[in-house]
Amino acid sequence: MEAAVIYLASPYSHRNSKVREERFQAACQATANLVRAGHAVFAPIVLGPPLERCGIPSDWTFWQALARKYLARCDEMLVLQLDGWRESEGVQAELALAAELGKRVHYLDAETPHD
């Protein structure tokens, strides 16, 4: 049986660039840990900041259509519970998309330093 493909949702946007960087690093670390454990993972936050440097927008309006396509192809969603995940427009929209698409949702505890 083939391993499930996991969509890793996590908050990113914040007015403080330090918080955005911490969230990016936490998503990268969580992705690396999951991959090391043998999981196939797609994490939009791991893609976002490098693509921003190439002119791709970081806002949910842009990423919404892509998130739908990626999530449709994943088997389940894992929410990285960084500070702010409940308030994140993107994470909440991803949760709604997962429900609409009938995807299983699991939660991963995490802590990030914040001001």
The total domain count is 1
The level-1 CATH class? Alpha Beta
Order of helices and strands: EHEHHEHE
Provide the structure class.
alpha/beta
Q: How is the main sheet built? A: 4 strands, parallel
For this structure, what is the CATH homologous superfamily? Hypothetical protein PA1492
Mean pLDDT: 91
| Bulk shape | globular
Q: N- to C-terminal separation?
A: 44 Å
* Oligomer kind: single chain
- The whole-angstrom Rg is 13 Å
Q: What's the total helix number?
A: 4
Strand content: 15-25%
CATH topology: Rossmann fold
CATH level-two architecture: 3-Layer(aba) Sandwich
Beta-strand segment tally: 4
Q: Trace the largest sheet across and list its strands.
A: 2-1-3-4
Note down, in words, how this protein is organized:
This protein has 115 residues and is of the alpha/beta class. The chain has a single domain (5-109), classed as Hypothetical protein PA1492 (Rossmann fold), CATH 3.40.50.10400. It has 4 helices and 4 strands; from the N terminus they run βαβααβαβ. It has helices at residues 17-36, 44-52, 60-73, 89-101; strands at residues 5-9, 40-42, 76-81, 104-109. It has a 4-stranded parallel beta sheet, with helices on both faces. α3 (60-73) runs parallel beside α4 (89-101).
